[in-house]
Design a protein that fits this description.
This protein has 180 residues and is α/β, with parallel strands linked by helices. It is 38% helix and 23% strand. The chain has 7 helices and 10 strands. It has helices at residues 23-33, 52-60, 70-73, 87-97, 116-136, 141-149, 175-178, and strands at 16-18, 37-42, 45-51, 80-81, 101-106, 109-115, 153-154, 161-162, 166-168, 171-173. The chain starts with 15 loop residues before the first strand and ends with a helix.
Protein backbone atom coordinates (compact mmCIF):
# COMPACT_ATOMS: atom_id res chain seq x y z
CA UNK A 1 0.00 0.00 0.00
CA UNK A 2 1.03 3.54 -0.50
CA UNK A 3 1.74 6.10 2.15
CA UNK A 4 -1.87 7.35 2.18
CA UNK A 5 -2.59 8.63 5.70
CA UNK A 6 -5.67 7.31 7.51
CA UNK A 7 -7.00 10.86 7.93
CA UNK A 8 -7.94 10.67 4.23
CA UNK A 9 -10.29 7.73 4.99
CA UNK A 10 -12.03 9.14 8.02
CA UNK A 11 -15.47 10.44 8.50
CA UNK A 12 -15.58 12.70 11.55
CA UNK A 13 -18.79 10.97 12.62
CA UNK A 14 -18.72 8.08 15.05
CA UNK A 15 -21.07 6.61 17.61
CA UNK A 16 -20.26 7.77 21.14
CA UNK A 17 -21.72 6.21 24.28
CA UNK A 18 -21.18 6.49 28.01
CA UNK A 19 -19.79 3.82 30.32
CA UNK A 20 -23.05 3.83 32.26
CA UNK A 21 -25.28 3.29 29.19
CA UNK A 22 -26.89 -0.13 28.82
CA UNK A 23 -25.24 -2.31 26.17
CA UNK A 24 -28.60 -2.78 24.43
CA UNK A 25 -29.06 0.98 24.05
CA UNK A 26 -25.53 1.33 22.69
CA UNK A 27 -26.15 -1.46 20.19
CA UNK A 28 -29.33 0.23 19.02
CA UNK A 29 -27.37 3.44 18.37
CA UNK A 30 -24.70 1.47 16.50
CA UNK A 31 -27.33 -0.23 14.37
CA UNK A 32 -29.12 3.04 13.53
CA UNK A 33 -25.80 4.57 12.46
CA UNK A 34 -24.76 1.47 10.47
CA UNK A 35 -21.61 1.08 12.56
CA UNK A 36 -20.00 -1.97 14.16
CA UNK A 37 -18.38 -0.09 17.03
CA UNK A 38 -19.01 2.74 19.47
CA UNK A 39 -16.44 4.89 21.21
CA UNK A 40 -17.01 4.81 24.96
CA UNK A 41 -16.54 8.33 26.27
CA UNK A 42 -15.71 9.59 29.73
CA UNK A 43 -16.42 13.27 29.29
CA UNK A 44 -14.58 14.12 26.06
CA UNK A 45 -11.94 11.38 26.45
CA UNK A 46 -12.10 7.86 25.09
CA UNK A 47 -12.49 5.31 27.88
CA UNK A 48 -12.73 2.34 25.53
CA UNK A 49 -14.52 0.86 22.56
CA UNK A 50 -17.60 -1.36 22.32
CA UNK A 51 -17.68 -3.58 19.24
CA UNK A 52 -20.29 -5.87 17.76
CA UNK A 53 -17.93 -8.78 18.45
CA UNK A 54 -17.70 -8.02 22.17
CA UNK A 55 -21.48 -7.62 22.35
CA UNK A 56 -21.94 -11.04 20.74
CA UNK A 57 -19.53 -12.54 23.28
CA UNK A 58 -21.57 -11.03 26.13
CA UNK A 59 -24.79 -12.29 24.59
CA UNK A 60 -23.39 -15.81 24.27
CA UNK A 61 -22.25 -15.60 27.90
CA UNK A 62 -25.90 -15.08 28.84
CA UNK A 63 -25.65 -11.42 29.88
CA UNK A 64 -28.81 -9.32 30.08
CA UNK A 65 -27.91 -6.58 27.59
CA UNK A 66 -30.64 -4.29 28.95
CA UNK A 67 -28.98 -4.30 32.37
CA UNK A 68 -25.30 -4.72 31.51
CA UNK A 69 -23.47 -1.37 31.50
CA UNK A 70 -21.20 -0.61 28.57
CA UNK A 71 -18.27 -0.40 31.03
CA UNK A 72 -18.61 -4.15 31.66
CA UNK A 73 -18.53 -5.06 27.96
CA UNK A 74 -16.11 -2.55 26.44
CA UNK A 75 -12.45 -2.97 25.63
CA UNK A 76 -10.83 -0.45 27.99
CA UNK A 77 -7.55 -0.47 26.06
CA UNK A 78 -8.41 0.02 22.39
CA UNK A 79 -5.72 0.15 19.76
CA UNK A 80 -5.10 3.69 18.55
CA UNK A 81 -3.38 5.33 15.61
CA UNK A 82 -2.82 8.96 14.70
CA UNK A 83 -4.31 10.67 11.62
CA UNK A 84 -0.83 10.61 10.04
CA UNK A 85 -0.50 6.80 10.33
CA UNK A 86 -0.36 5.23 6.86
CA UNK A 87 -3.07 2.87 5.67
CA UNK A 88 -0.40 0.16 5.39
CA UNK A 89 0.65 0.59 9.03
CA UNK A 90 -2.97 0.72 10.20
CA UNK A 91 -3.65 -2.55 8.36
CA UNK A 92 -0.61 -4.16 10.00
CA UNK A 93 -1.83 -2.97 13.42
CA UNK A 94 -5.35 -4.25 12.83
CA UNK A 95 -4.16 -7.65 11.65
CA UNK A 96 -1.23 -7.93 14.07
CA UNK A 97 -3.30 -7.24 17.18
CA UNK A 98 -6.33 -9.27 16.17
CA UNK A 99 -8.60 -6.32 16.87
CA UNK A 100 -11.49 -5.27 14.68
CA UNK A 101 -11.34 -1.50 15.12
CA UNK A 102 -8.74 1.22 15.54
CA UNK A 103 -9.46 4.54 17.22
CA UNK A 104 -7.87 7.44 15.39
CA UNK A 105 -6.75 10.00 17.96
CA UNK A 106 -5.14 13.40 17.73
CA UNK A 107 -3.66 13.87 21.18
CA UNK A 108 -6.46 12.93 23.55
CA UNK A 109 -9.25 13.69 21.06
CA UNK A 110 -10.88 10.86 19.10
CA UNK A 111 -11.21 11.99 15.50
CA UNK A 112 -12.59 8.77 14.02
CA UNK A 113 -12.78 5.00 13.99
CA UNK A 114 -11.33 2.65 11.37
CA UNK A 115 -12.34 -0.94 10.72
CA UNK A 116 -11.41 -3.61 8.20
CA UNK A 117 -14.02 -2.33 5.74
CA UNK A 118 -12.36 1.10 5.63
CA UNK A 119 -8.92 -0.37 5.05
CA UNK A 120 -10.20 -2.83 2.43
CA UNK A 121 -11.90 0.02 0.56
CA UNK A 122 -8.62 1.96 0.56
CA UNK A 123 -6.85 -1.11 -0.81
CA UNK A 124 -9.50 -1.54 -3.53
CA UNK A 125 -9.17 2.14 -4.52
CA UNK A 126 -5.40 1.79 -4.66
CA UNK A 127 -5.65 -1.35 -6.80
CA UNK A 128 -8.07 0.36 -9.19
CA UNK A 129 -5.62 3.25 -9.55
CA UNK A 130 -2.78 0.76 -10.17
CA UNK A 131 -4.89 -1.00 -12.80
CA UNK A 132 -5.66 2.27 -14.58
CA UNK A 133 -2.01 3.33 -14.49
CA UNK A 134 -0.79 -0.02 -15.79
CA UNK A 135 -3.42 -0.14 -18.53
CA UNK A 136 -2.59 3.43 -19.59
CA UNK A 137 1.09 2.49 -19.70
CA UNK A 138 0.39 -0.31 -22.19
CA UNK A 139 -0.10 -3.24 -19.81
CA UNK A 140 -3.19 -5.36 -19.72
CA UNK A 141 -5.91 -4.86 -17.16
CA UNK A 142 -5.91 -8.57 -16.29
CA UNK A 143 -2.21 -8.68 -15.38
CA UNK A 144 -2.49 -5.52 -13.31
CA UNK A 145 -5.39 -6.97 -11.30
CA UNK A 146 -3.56 -10.24 -10.72
CA UNK A 147 -0.47 -8.36 -9.58
CA UNK A 148 -2.60 -6.22 -7.24
CA UNK A 149 -4.19 -9.25 -5.59
CA UNK A 150 -0.84 -10.88 -4.87
CA UNK A 151 -0.63 -8.55 -1.84
CA UNK A 152 -2.13 -9.51 1.48
CA UNK A 153 -5.16 -7.60 2.66
CA UNK A 154 -8.46 -7.81 4.49
CA UNK A 155 -11.53 -9.62 3.17
CA UNK A 156 -14.45 -7.26 2.60
CA UNK A 157 -16.94 -10.01 3.40
CA UNK A 158 -15.79 -11.17 6.82
CA UNK A 159 -13.00 -8.76 7.74
CA UNK A 160 -10.38 -11.48 8.13
CA UNK A 161 -6.80 -11.20 6.95
CA UNK A 162 -6.12 -13.19 3.78
CA UNK A 163 -3.35 -13.66 1.25
CA UNK A 164 -5.76 -15.07 -1.34
CA UNK A 165 -8.31 -12.37 -2.20
CA UNK A 166 -10.32 -12.41 -5.42
CA UNK A 167 -12.57 -9.70 -6.84
CA UNK A 168 -16.17 -10.98 -6.75
CA UNK A 169 -18.75 -8.46 -7.91
CA UNK A 170 -16.52 -5.56 -6.89
CA UNK A 171 -15.57 -6.94 -3.46
CA UNK A 172 -12.25 -8.46 -2.42
CA UNK A 173 -13.20 -11.81 -0.86
CA UNK A 174 -11.27 -14.62 0.84
CA UNK A 175 -11.81 -18.29 -0.11
CA UNK A 176 -14.36 -18.82 2.69
CA UNK A 177 -16.54 -15.88 1.61
CA UNK A 178 -16.38 -16.81 -2.07
CA UNK A 179 -18.13 -20.11 -1.35
CA UNK A 180 -21.04 -18.55 0.57
Amino acid sequence: MTTLPVRDLLSRDYVGVSESDAVLGAVQLMREAGETAAVVLRGQDAAGVLTAATVLDRLLDGDDLERTPVADAMNPHPETVTPETTVAEATRRLVGTGTTHLLVTDGTEVVGVLDARDLAAAKRTEQAATTETTTAAGGTEESAVQDGYANQSICEGCGSFSQDLVNVDGQLLCPDCRTV
